[in-house]
Design brief:
The structure holds two protein chains of two kinds.
Chain A: E1 8-10, E2 28-34, H1 38-47, E3 53-54, E4 56-57, H2 72-84, H3 88-95, H4 100-106, H5 110-126, H6 130-142, H7 156-171, E5 175-182, E6 187-190, E7 193-198, E8 201-205, E9 210-215, E10 222-226, E11 233-235, H8 241-253, H9 261-270, E12 275-282, E13 285-295, E14 298-306, H10 309-319, H11 333-355, E15 359-365
Chain B: H1 3-15, H2 18-33, E1 37-44, E2 74-83, H3 92-101, E3 112-117, H4 125-138, E4 142-145, E5 153-160, H5 164-167, E6 182-187, E7 200-201, H6 212-219
Parallel strand pairs in B: 1-7
Antiparallel strand pairs in B: 2-3, 2-5, 5-6
Classes of the chains: A alpha+beta, B alpha+beta.
Amino acid sequence: MFSLALSLVLNAGPKPPGATALGEGKPSVTVVVDGPRAEDTKKTLQSVSLPVELRLTDAPASVGVGATPSPWPEKLAAARRAYVSANFAECLKQLEGDAAAADLLSAGERLLTARLLAWRTACHTGANQPQPARAAATALATFQLALPEDVGSMTPDVESVLARTISTVSAAPLRKVRVESTPSGASVEVDGRPAACTTPCSVDVLAGAHVVRLSADGYSPAWKLVADDAPPAFTLEPASPELAAKQWRARLQHGEALDSEASVRLLSSALRAPRLAVVTSEAAAPKTLRGALAVDGVLTTRAERDGDAEGLVRDLLVRGKVVEEAPPLYQRWPFWLAVGVAAVAAGTTTAIVVGTRQTVTRVELSP
Amino acid sequence: MTERERENSLSLRERGWGEGARPLLLTLFFSLSACIETRSVALTFGTDGEGLDGFMCKDTSGTLLLSRAPTDGKTSLVIDFVKLGGVPGCRTGQLMKWCSAHDCSAIGGKRSCVTVNLPPPSMAREELRAALLNALRAGDPFQATADAPDEFVLVRVVGTTQSCDEVAPGGDALPAFDKSKLVGCAYSCPVLFDKVEQDVYLGFETLTTTCEQGVRICSDGQLQWQP
């Protein structure tokens, strides 16, 4: 299982602009080391000689994009107090905000949205504004929100408006909304309800405007208030490293494997590492090292070795085409150069030995 | 073994690969030894001593140079290998012309000398030739050199009443012959001993018996004309 304490990241990502580092010119690679043998593996990888630049860094911390507290519980409480005091103007003032309901739904706050719309219905009714009251009730019904307990604090006529409106809206036939996105495969949420499908897909909704929200790993979520006649098309923007780290950590906390495709992809974004390799092992088989390599966020290869971290990384680099596999000896020009030199040397030596065959001639005066 | 060789040998042993290098060196040595060809070439004056004309020359007074030898005929035969710096023609004129423009000095380390007893000069020319030949053949073949030069050379045999010690090389320098003690001379054509496949003939070109001048030229350090 993933453990922050054991997680190490061998980051071989791009160097900061202007930075000069050892191994200038070598491609850089990232490897996440996790598991019971993380420290040993880290030491091994620190001392290996590879045709790439390896840099160690920690896994992204859990700090990051934090949710700010919503002001709506307080506003709703204030609106309730104003309503009870028959101060409907103050009540409506507390609830004003054209996009408030959509904002809350895009954040998945269906209960708060239901309370907001219910109190708007109540305050407008109390202020003798039947049309805005119906509009708020219609929105509550269209979003298929459950009536909040707050309804028990409202007058019967408010309850009547809500009940009638929900009944009317719910009786209307459903319509299909086609949702597309770039890239595809994003999870679709409608009116803050859990994902109904992944793009491109269609969802059944009641007539009226709806909040459609898309989310995908590695991308910033996006939402739109979709009217009846406007099929939504989304273009998702890449997530910031902080958001990617948050998404990565959320996946791991839900049991995702460290070397899964999604994990590696998110980690690449979180660490700004165009080339990322993950090395991990399990307590049940600590000697078996598993590895995965992602290039530009795409998982390109996996490998497995028994206790040989260097070999594992080499496998990943070669299979992932980060480095070229050394060709066989006979395919290297130095080999043939050496053969040629040896042949020339042998030929020359032979020629010299044969050509300079020494002759000793004894001369005698023998009249 | 020189001191340096001894140091090198010790150095190899100290490096720990002397044992391994020894077989290699032996193999190299035997390989090279197998490539050494040993040959033997004889210097002759011809079958009937026809190359001995240079030992039957007379001076301008008509006296045989051979008469300069003592009564016992004791004469030193000095064998020189004369480097030519090329391959000139064999005729006397060609040689002299070549040597006027080239260094035709005898090779210092190659001079050898043997003492022979030549016959008295008081006999007819052809008898004298036969007697000279017999005298020269009386002894065992004399080794002029164990390793002939690896270039074209001319071989000459100078007869002189000077002792072998007198004409022995002093270092690289060769003492000049005393012209008044010359007895005779013969020489070969330019020859590369390592390639020659016959005996090398020694002779002397002359059209007259008064050929002391030729003997002087033949025995000269540079094979130059001698006044």
